[in-house]
Amino acid sequence: MADIALQIRVDADPDTTYRAISTPDGVAGWFTTGAEVGEGAGALHRLSFPGSTPATWDFRVETADPGKRLTQTVVAGPPQWIGTEIVYALEAHPEGGTVVRFDHTGFAAVDDMFREVTMGWAGMFTRLKEYVETGTPVPYFTV
């Protein structure tokens, strides 16, 4: 199995950061404006990506611990993504802000798609940082 692991420090508190990854306005602020986002365990994040695919990519929320952790399982989307797990772990940094540890695990192989996804997530996290620090939406994908 192949796993993506990223970490970024943002100048925003864990609750603000959590809202950015777990609410409709938050996800639209940095990820995609094509977001139907349910909140809490069992909810779906149904995301669309213009120019990428006509189908939605659906992430089922497994764990929702406000200000601390959000875990999701991919239940619809590209075949290579189905069954992979996405984890956002948030921790207050002693000097202020939040450390965001991100894991996207369970890919079958390190192939071209995996490498593109790794770069994609890295680019999206620069948007997450900008969004939570400024409050100004900067979505990676706009519908």
Automatic annotation (TrEMBL):
Domain (Activator of Hsp90 ATPase homologue 1/2-like C-terminal) ranges: 11-133
InterPro entries referenced in this protein's UniProt entry, alphabetically: ASHA1/2-like_C, START-like_dom_sf
Superkingdom of origin organism: Bacteria
Short name of one Pfam family: AHSA1
Family as reported in the entry's similarity comment: Belongs to the AHA1 family.
Name this protein carries in UniProt: SRPBCC domain-containing protein
Organism: Streptomyces tirandamycinicus
Lineage, highest ranks first: Bacteria, Bacillati, Actinomycetota, Actinomycetes, Kitasatosporales
